[in-house]
Amino acid sequence: LRQIFNIEKVNVAYAYLENDITLDDDLRILGDSDQRGKTLYLCLNGHTLNLGQYFIWVGYMDCTLYLCDCSAQKTGTVSGGSKGCVSVDDAGNYNATFNMYSGTLRGGNRTGCGGGVEIVNGTMNMYGGTIANNTAQKGGVIYSECGGTINLAGGTISGNKATNGDGGVINMAG
What is the model's pTM? Predict the structure, then answer.
């Protein structure tokens, strides 16, 4: 899965899980000054994307992740690891975006900030799905800083916690 964006000149990719997958590196959706606007449409299809010690990074230069579960059962899960589940870290141009339509972000256990989602200079739009049972020092579900934007229009958030009591669900930093 992570190899999709290691191929040069690919700006839009569609991934549809046919089996459970365990990452052996971070899944990076990153642009550069020559290739802006990388987009990944990720359909969990009722399967689990096990992150282990890795995470999904939606990076800079106008990159976007669309997450959904197109299975009838809606059991698709991103199973987080020690870096949390998703990082929307734009490092400066404020155009990285994570759009969540369905699926579950579960089990992110980060020693830092953002067990489910970390947003730095980017945007998260949650239209559906579930963010559950994630843990971080700050922002068990979502941690946002440096102008991060969070739009919650649907979905379920439950069972998340901050280990230092600072933003068990959402922590907005400066």
Answer: 0.91
